[in-house]
Automatic annotation (TrEMBL):
CDD domains: AdoMet_MTases (cd02440)
Keyword Disulfide bond attached: no
Name of the protein in question: Ubiquinone/menaquinone biosynthesis C-methylase UbiE
Lineage summary: Bacteria, Pseudomonadati, Pseudomonadota, Alphaproteobacteria, Hyphomicrobiales
Pfam families: Methyltransf_11 (PF08241)
UniProt source species: Bradyrhizobium ottawaense
Amino acid sequence: MTAQDPFAAFKAVQKEAWSLFTPMEVFTTPTAARLVGFAGVAAGQRLLDVGCGTGVVAITAARRGAKVRGLDLSPVLIERAREHAQLLNLDVDFKDGDAESLPYGDNEFDVVLSQFGHMFAPRPDVAIGEMLRVLKPGGTIAFSTWPPHLYVGRMFALIGRHLPPPEGVASPVLWGDPKIVAERLAGKTKDLSFEMDMMTPSALSPQHFRRTMEATIGPLIKLVAQYKDEPDKLKSFRAEFEALISEYFDAGHNVMRQQFLMSKARKV
C-alpha cells in the first residue's frame, strides 16, 4: 500500500478484521489440498500463494516439493503461516503485503494460487493484473472462490446490505461467477476450466455456526461491532443470518454444506 492508494483505509480495516481468521483453518485445510491438486502442482515449481492466510495452501504445495512463497495482508496470519512451515522444517517465504501490489518480479512464478483470498482485493482488475504479471507465460493460475448464489455468496450480500462497502469496491463473490471469471481473464489466459467442490465445516446448530462466523470472518466482525449499541438491529441481522445458515445446515451430519468454485487457466 502507498499513500496514493485510494483504498488504503479500507485495507487497514481488512487487515485488522481478518487477523482473527486463524480458527477457520480447520475448515480451509482440506479445501487447500483440493486446490493444489486441481492446479496440478508439481515438485520444483515456483509457486505463489496470494492471500495465503495461515498458509494452508502454501504448506500443502511445499509438501509436494514446490518452491513456495506466500503473501497476505494480515501480519498475524503470516506469523501463523510461518509457525506451520517451521513445524515441518519447510522453507517457505511468507511475508505480509498487498495483492494489488505484489512485491515480486515479472514472470517469476510457474504457478499462482489463491484460496478465498485475492477475491477480497477491492479492484479485481488490479489484483488479477498483478497475479498474471508475476506468472510466467504458460504458467498456471488457479483460485477458489464463493459463487454468489450459494451460502457464502449470499452471506456476503447480506452483510453488504447492513454494511455497504466503500464506493468503488467490487463485490468479492463476483469471482465465483464463471462468466465473470472468463471476462476478467479474457485475452490474458487460455485453457480456462472450472470445477465445483464442497466445504463441510462442522456445527452443532445454525446458532453455533453463526457465533463462530461472527468471531472469525472479517466483515462480520466489523458489522457486529457496528451494531454493539443498537441491539434491535443486531437481533434483526442475526435472525436473517441464522435463517440463511439454516438453508445449508445438514442437521443429520452436524455440518454446513458450502459449495465453492475452482477456476484454472494458463497465461498466454
